[in-house]
Amino acid sequence: MRDTDKPALTMAPEMYVHYCEHEGCDKWGGFGRSAARDEPPHWWCWEHFPEEFKIHRPAKAG
Q: At residue 60, does pLDDT exceed 80?
């Protein structure tokens, strides 16, 4: 399908805004995680993103 075959947007898409779910934090929740595909994700800023979800990789030697 070519781009010219697609209908024009009649309305702007709605943006899903999510902030950090940590109580008292008003930072942008850029890191999300859900336990299953059918469960909506929970969102946190990096400061409050749970440690058990972070991937710790060794630093590269350089």
A: no
Q: Which two tokens stand for residue 60?
A: 């590269």
Number of helical H runs and strand E runs in the chain: 0, 2
21-30 long-range contacts, CB within 8 A, separation 24+: 21/48, 22/48
pTM of the predicted protein model: 0.59
The C-alpha torsion from 44 through 45 and 50 to 55, rounded to 10°, is 120
- For the record, the structure tokens of 1 come out as 């399908």
Are the beta carbons of 3 and 9 closer than 8 angstroms? no
List, in order, residues 6 or more apart from 21 with CB less than 8 Å away: 29, 42, 43, 44, 48
Rg (CA), the chain: 18
